[in-house]
Amino acid sequence: MSDLPTLLAECIAVVDETMDMLLSRTKDTEMRLFEAMRYSYTTGGKRLRPFLVTHSSALFSVDKNCAARVAAAVEFMHTYSLIHDDLPAMDNADTRRGKPSCHRQFDEATAILAGDALQALAFEVLSAPETHVDPAVRIELVRKLSQAVGVNGMCGGQMIDLLSERIDELNISKITRLQYLKTSKMFTFSSVAGSIMGKGSYRSYMALHDFAQEFGLAFQITDDLLDVEADQKKLCNAIGQDAVDGKATFVSVLGVERTRAHVSLLVDNAISALEVFDELANPLREAARYFTNCTN
Amino acid sequence: MSDLPTLLAECIAVVDETMDMLLSRTKDTEMRLFEAMRYSYTTGGKRLRPFLVTHSSALFSVDKNCAARVAAAVEFMHTYSLIHDDLPAMDNADTRRGKPSCHRQFDEATAILAGDALQALAFEVLSAPETHVDPAVRIELVRKLSQAVGVNGMCGGQMIDLLSERIDELNISKITRLQYLKTSKMFTFSSVAGSIMGKGSYRSYMALHDFAQEFGLAFQITDDLLDVEADQKKLCNAIGQDAVDGKATFVSVLGVERTRAHVSLLVDNAISALEVFDELANPLREAARYFTNCTN
Fold this sequence. Notes:
Chains A, B: GO terms for molecular function: metal ion binding; prenyltransferase activity. The structure is a homodimer of 296-residue chains. With 296 residues, chain A is mainly alpha-helical.
């Protein structure tokens, strides 16, 4: 079996090529919209959600072209959420992955539309016959993705996140729910996608669901930890950007050491959930350790 | 047969009740998001797109509950587009149907998220088994709606509209394409929805498609005419708000009289397209005349 960095690089190459193929070109007036959409997904990124689609699909011997299309749809959806999150009214981020954010490179109106069109494109890709021969499989993918995005998913999580500065007491239970909605729901969709496409058993579906739910949470908390550590390195503040913004995170509530222990526990749980699978699930196991700095 | 005002009122009652049923409630932190979504679709509106879904479905004896769900999905989608169009970075509208626009009643971030979540909800409703027993029908609805919304639909049209102030020459051909994308595509989806659900013939599908394409264009141009006439009544300016904004419209290019003649021609074409249907299509015919002021 290939090592993780090779598999990650392979996944990036395949999903990026697929996204380019799926975003049809135009030379007409609305070209600016295509450019903003393309700009936003070509700014790099780990393509972790596509990786989950790809390697959950491999467990069920799903056709690689079908898996690549679903992986691209997930990344289109993720890209929309990043564009809108960066807007001045939201996180007001001038840069994303070291490049100007979409609204800085283009303008706010174009960024709003690019996000909207990327969400629609994700559903368009999932619904096309090329994605899966069985319409019942395609509609199940659409249904699960729409649930992962809407009020009970990413959008709901982002709403809580925005409100969290005003909430007096954001305890561990509430922060867990926030991150579960904002991050884990998309991880979960990406991981069960393989089981849906491959018509896996209920047991295998739930194994991937539970894996992704815990991994998503661990991934998000690791992000918070990295924020704090970056700030500590800068020697300018020891509590992290989100704490400065007034946002409660696991780190601000539990402290660094207990948070690290919590991440480690979540990753153990995530990997335990995969025990129904053989070594074909190793890329998922290794990704969970790698992206949460739990490799040793 | 009931008269048009009665049918319109019936449609509003059914679709509003269905939307309330489909937008699940919560008492959790993200309640603000639900409130913004509900606020935005309860500000009134003609529910013209749901009317097209309802009465195209009646042509094929589609189950009324199924039609009501698709009608609600279309109105959720339409509501998302209105919320985002009103944003400061877009049309910067403080009011919508006489009430504060979503971002004025709540805030910009909430309005962006409410639009995003309404788009996802539209697809979630279409993909649910309750909407149609046949997954192939549901996925076709999702596919057509996603195409009507994305870069080659509403979002593309809105992008051209925003850019139109900068375009030196916006001729009738380009304005037609803009309105076709921005308005007709959603009209078209709403009208072919009945044929898709009722598994109508290709001929009936195309009849509804052609009807809606012409009606959508006529409807949008009527809106431009009303803008001009409202301004003329105010005696403060004779060329209309969009002309003031630098946007080219049919009225600014053709003048009022020739524009009226053009609308009349489009409505005739729309109604001609329906000749394959009997008097069951009368509500569609009457709506096309009524909403374009071509009743006499």
